[in-house]
């Protein structure tokens, strides 16, 4: 009986050790990719900065009404784009982004809006599909290294939906839910209203006395805006995706690190239990021998 | 003579950045050449060749672009393109 429990413990130690190796490998993979992901985020930053600056320049120097900057009143549909991951093993990453999405959806519905869901990442897609929620668009693209062309495709679809007439399922606003990369230990889900464009981030408001440069627009302010805004949306969505990728990898690294630690703890506990079982076996054997010898001596 | 401060950025990376004397780019209304002291301008680019020349008159970078836009503001020239298809010249000038 006692020998049986020893064997069971040995077996558990062995399987936990191989699991630990898997966790450790996943942790190292995530750790090595995270640097690359952050590098790509940094590499895409100048483009986004330049576009943002240009958009705000046009916005401050002209009074042009562009469809992308004006509120639509003819439709009460709102699009929500979720940027989630393709794989799990990232702790609460997928769960928290989906929870945030549900919150956003609930809030929009409370405002009397009809929500069109756009999902990227297999985790979000399967979540909504399992619940039989209709998705207006879905992409799974390798969420830990997003490509610019996929971002372009997503942005074009969303822009198309935004510019479409009401009867064809046009949407009046676009919200993006993604995970913001604060730092290596903290990533939080965040919601951004993308369209209609409103505040342009990161641009200093010119002071009262600053003379605003008078811009030449070539060929015309409208044409410049036409070319700029879709690019702006595309680059924003791409940068959200890159940031989400960095967040995903950071969560995965952390989750796998914890899993490795837990496996180590389990191994230690089982080793102790196995030692105890062995000791109990030995003690029992000794007491059997002693009592046998006593019985012989007494006879 | 004053110099231009040029940034050439593509969607996924910075292609070139540095001081230059002249920038030539294919704007919607024709090839534009920009020297220091140019009025602030925002132009849409059509497919064509962007050329940046340094003070010594050398071509620092010459690339083919598919479209994008160009902004000039206070001798800071920013060329934003979706993709650079063919790069010749000293791209390594950018650290």
UniProtKB/TrEMBL annotation, chain A:
Q: Where in the cell is it found?
A: Cell membrane; Membrane
Membrane topology according to the record? Peripheral membrane protein
List the Gene Ontology MF annotations in alphabetical order.
Answer: ATP binding; proton-transporting ATP synthase activity, rotational mechanism
Biological process annotations from GO = proton motive force-driven plasma membrane ATP synthesis
Q: Which UniProt keywords apply?
A: ATP synthesis, Cell membrane, CF(1), Hydrogen ion transport, Ion transport, Membrane, Transport
InterPro entries for this protein = ATP_synth_F1_ATPase_gsu (IPR035968), ATP_synth_F1_gsu (IPR000131), ATP_synth_F1_gsu_CS (IPR023632)
Q: Which domain of life is it from?
A: Bacteria
Record GO cellular component, one term: proton-transporting ATP synthase complex
Mostly located where? membrane
Q: What does this protein do?
A: Produces ATP from ADP in the presence of a proton gradient across the membrane. The gamma chain is believed to be important in regulating ATPase activity and the flow of protons through the CF(0) complex.
Which PANTHER family does UniProt cross-reference here? ATP SYNTHASE GAMMA CHAIN, ATP SYNTHASE SUBUNIT GAMMA, MITOCHONDRIAL
Q: Report the family membership.
A: Belongs to the ATPase gamma chain family.
Assembly? F-type ATPases have 2 components, CF(1) - the catalytic core - and CF(0) - the membrane proton channel. CF(1) has five subunits: alpha(3), beta(3), gamma(1), delta(1), epsilon(1). CF(0) has three main subunits: a, b and c.
State the protein's name: ATP synthase gamma chain
What organism does the record attribute this protein to?
Isoptericola sediminis
Species lineage: Bacteria, Bacillati, Actinomycetota, Actinomycetes, Micrococcales
Automatic annotation (TrEMBL), chain B:
Q: Where in the cell is it found?
A: Cell membrane
Q: Where is the ATP synthase F1 complex delta/epsilon subunit N-terminal domain?
A: 4-83
Query: Per UniProt, what is one Pfam family of this protein?
Result: ATP-synt_DE_N
The topology of this chain with respect to the membrane is: Peripheral membrane protein
Its main subcellular localisation, reduced to a broad class, is membrane
Keyword Transport (UniProt): yes
Which GO-annotated molecular functions does the record name?
Answer: ATP binding; proton-transporting ATP synthase activity, rotational mechanism
State the GO CC annotations.
plasma membrane; proton-transporting ATP synthase complex
Q: Which InterPro entries match?
A: ATP_synth_F1_dsu/esu (IPR001469), ATP_synth_F1_dsu/esu_N (IPR020546), ATPsynth_dsu/esu_N (IPR036771)
Entry keyword set = ATP synthesis, Cell membrane, CF(1), Hydrogen ion transport, Ion transport, Membrane, Transport
The superkingdom listed in its UniProt entry is Bacteria
Chain's role: Produces ATP from ADP in the presence of a proton gradient across the membrane.
Member of which family?
Belongs to the ATPase epsilon chain family.
Quaternary arrangement and interactors, per the entry?
F-type ATPases have 2 components, CF(1) - the catalytic core - and CF(0) - the membrane proton channel. CF(1) has five subunits: alpha(3), beta(3), gamma(1), delta(1), epsilon(1). CF(0) has three main subunits: a, b and c.
Check the record and name the HAMAP family matching this protein.
ATP_synth_epsil_bac (MF_00530)
The name under which this protein is listed is ATP synthase epsilon chain
**Gene source species:** Isoptericola sediminis
